[in-house]
Design goal:
The protein is 33% helix and 16% strand. A five-stranded parallel beta sheet has the order 3-2-1-4-16. It has a five-stranded parallel beta sheet with strand order 6-14-7-8-9. Strands 10, 11, 12 and 13 form a four-stranded antiparallel beta sheet that branches. The chain folds into three domains: 114 residues, Alpha-helical ferredoxin (Fumarate Reductase Iron-sulfur Protein, Chain B, domain 2), CATH 1.10.1060; 163 residues, FAD/NAD(P)-binding domain (3-Layer(bba) Sandwich); 155 residues, FAD/NAD(P)-binding domain, CATH 3.50.50.60. Helix 6 packs antiparallel against helix 7, helix 8 runs parallel beside helix 10 and helix 12 packs across helix 13. The chain starts with 15 loop residues before the first helix and ends with a helix. It has 17 helices and 16 strands. It is globular and about 65 Å long. Strand 1, helix 8 and strand 2 form a beta-alpha-beta unit. By secondary structure, it is of the alpha/beta class.
C-alpha cells in the first residue's frame, strides 16, 4: 500500500555514531515504495521549471512520472538520454540550488527529492541491468582525444563514442575518474560506482591511457600531430591554494587535495594499503565548502577525537551543501564559526601543535553578496591541534596552457573557452569544466563536456 505524503521522504542512513567510524556509504537510498511515494508528490506542473534548473536538461517531470508508475527502467532511459552519470549526480550534485531549487512544490514546503529519485533509478538499473551487453556504434573514422577522466572528460567521451567517434582518454593518475576518484570520499560516492561508469565507456570502445601527464609526456599539439583531429581538455582545477600565513610549511599541514587523495585514491583508510598518513588526535580544517566537509569527516573516520571546521563567516554564509553540513554536525564535527586562522604554531621539531585564530564579525556585503568578515582586534586565541587541513579552494595547473600553442587563458586564469561549445583560441582544441570555470560542480562539468563534444563533432565533420 503506497501512502501519499506531503513532506519529502527522509533518506535512510547509518547511525551517526556508527558511520563516523567507517567509510561505508552514509545513506542507503530509497526503497521501491519510498521512491514511488516520493515521485507521487510531483505536481507535473506545466512549465517544468525543474528541468530549466538542470545543467544537462533532464526531462525531470517525465522520469519522475515513470517512477510514480513503477516504470523504473523507462525512467532510467529518460535520464540517460541527457545524463551519462546519474548514479553519481544523484549522490553529489547540489540539487537544492539547481533542479529542486526551482521545484514548485518547494515554494510552500519540501521540494520533490529529485536527486534521491535519480539515484534510486540509476541504482535500480545497475542492480537489474548492470551486466547487460552494451552495443557499440560503427566507427565513422574520426579520432578525438580527451585529456582528463573526471566528469567533464567522461561526459565528453561518452557523447563522442555514442556517435561513432574513436575516443582516447588520457589520465594523469593511475586511476580513472578524476575528482570523482581522488576528491569525493567513499562514504559519499562509492568508488565501484565510478569504476562501473568507466568500464561502461571502455566496453563501448573508449580507450583509457593512465599515468599520462599531457604537457609532460606529450603536448596537446603532439596529440594533434599524431592523428587526433581535435582534443578536449577537462583537467579540472586541482592545484591547491594556501593562505600564505606563518607556519604553513610545518609538518602536519595538508592541502585538502593531498589529504583526500591519500585517503580516497590511495586507500589510506584500509589496513592492506601502505599509504602513509599520520593518525591525528585534534584536527583543524580551514574552509567551509563541500571539500572542507569531506576532509573533516574523513579526519573523524581516521580516528581524530576532535575535528574543527574553522570558517571566517557564519552558518548563513557557509557555502557547503546543507545536507553535508547536517551530516558533519551529526557525526560530531565542531564548527568554529566567525574565526579566521592567522598562524600555524609548531614545536622545536617543526610539528604542528596549534592554530592561532582571531574572532570575526560580519559587516556589509562584499562583491559576492555575502557579508564581509571583519577582524575583532585583540581577540586572538590558540586552538590546540596536531594537524591543519587547508581547504580554501583550488586553481588550474598552468601546464597545458604553457605547453600548447595558440591557447589563451580567460580572466579567471582558466583556459579560455566559449560557453556555447567549449572551443578555445585554438580551433582544434576544446575545454570545459573546472579547467575553464574554476572549481564548480560535477553536473556543470558534465554539461560543459557534452557541449564540447557537440562542438568537436561539428569541427571534425567540417574539417575532413
Amino acid at each position: 500500500m503506497i501512502n501519499f505524503v506531503e513532506n519529502k521522504n527522509p533518506m535512510p542512513s547509518q547511525d551517526p555514531e556508527i558511520r563516523n567510524k567507517n567509510f561505508v556509504e552514509v545513506t542507503s537510498g530509497y526503497t521501491k515504495e519510498m521512491a514511488i511515494n516520493e515521485a507521487m508528490r510531483c505536481l507535473q506542473c506545466r512549465d517544468h521549471p525543474c528541468t530549466d534548473g538542470c545543467p544537462v536538461l533532464i526531462d525531470i517531470p517525465k522520469f519522475v512520472n515513470c517512477v510514480a508508475r513503477g516504470e523504473f527502467e523507462e525512467a532510467f532511459k529518460i535520464i540517460n538520454t541527457t545524463s551519462s552519470l546519474p548514479a553519481i549526480c544523484g549522490r553529489v550534485c547540489p540539487q537544492e540550488s539547481q533542479c529542486e531549487g526551482k521545484c514548485v512544490r518547494g515554494k510552500d514546503g519540501d521540494p520533490v527529492a529529485i536527486g534521491r529519485l535519480e539515484r534510486f533509478v540509476a541504482d535500480w538499473h545497475r542492480e537489474h541491468y548492470g551486466d547487460e551487453k552494451l552495443e557499440t556504434v560503427k566507427s565513422n573514422n574520426h579520432k578525438a582525444a580527451v585529456v582528463g577522466s573526471g566528469p567533464a572528460g567522461l561526459a565528453c567521451a561518452g557523447d563522442l563514442i555514442s556517435k561513432g567517434y574513436d575516443v582516447t582518454v588520457y589520465e594523469s593518475l593511475h586511476k580513472e575518474g578524476g575528482v570523482l576518484a581522488y576528491g569525493i570520499p567513499e562514504f559519499r560516492l562509492p568508488k565501484d560506482i565510478v569504476q562501473a561508469e568507466v568500464d561502461k565507456l571502455a566496453e563501448k570502445g573508449v580507450k583509457f591511457i593512465k599515468n599520462a601527464v599531457v604537457g609532460k609526456l606529450m603536448s596537446v599539439d603532439e596529440l594533434l600531430d599524431e592523428g587526433y583531429e581535435t582534443v578536449f581538455i577537462g583537467t579540472g582545477a586541482g592545484l591547491p591554494r594556501f593562505m600564505d600565513m606563518p607556519g604553513e610549511n610545518l609538518l602536519g599541514v595538508y592541502s585538502a587535495n593531498e589529504y583526500l587523495t591519500r585517503i580516497n585514491l590511495m586507500k589510506a583508510y584500509k589496513n592492506e594499503y601502505d599509504t602513509p598518513i599520520k593518525s591525528n588526535k585534534n584536527v583543524a580544517v580551514i574552509g567551509g565548502g563541500n571539500v572542507a566537509m569531506d576532509a573533516a569527516r574523513c579526519a573523524k573516520r581516521m580516528g581524530a577525537e576532535n575535528v574543527y571546521i574553522v570558517y571566517r563567516r557564519s552558518m548563513d554564509e557557509i557555502p557547503a551543501r546543507k545536507e553535508e553540513i547536517e551530516h558533519a554536525i551529526e557525526e560530531g564535527i565542531n564548527f568554529k564559526l566567525l574565526n579566521n586562522p592567522v598562524k600555524v604554531i609548531g614545536d622545536e621539531k617543526r610539528y604542528v601543535t596549534g592554530l592561532e585564530c582571531v574572532e570575526m564579525e560580519l559587516g556589509e556585503p562584499d562583491d559576492s553578496g555575502r557579508r564581509r568578515p571583519i577582524e575583532k582586534k585583540g581577540s586572538n586565541f590558540v586552538l590546540e591541534v596536531d594537524a591543519v587541513i587547508v581547504s580554501i579552494g583550488t586553481s588550474l595547473n598552468k601546464l597545458i596552457l604553457e605547453t600548447t600553442e595558440n591557447l589563451e587563458p580567460n580572466k579567471k586564469g582558466g583556459i579560455g573557452a566559449t560557453e556555447e561549445n567549449g572551443v578555445t583560441t585554438n580551433p582544434a582544441v576544446f575545454a570545459g569544466g573546472d579547467a575553464v570555470t574554476g572549481a564548480a560542480t560535477v553536473i556543470l562539468a558534465m554539461g560543459a563536456g557534452k557541449k564540447a563534444a557537440a562542438g568537436m563533432m561539428e569541427y571534425m565533420e567540417n574539417h575532413k
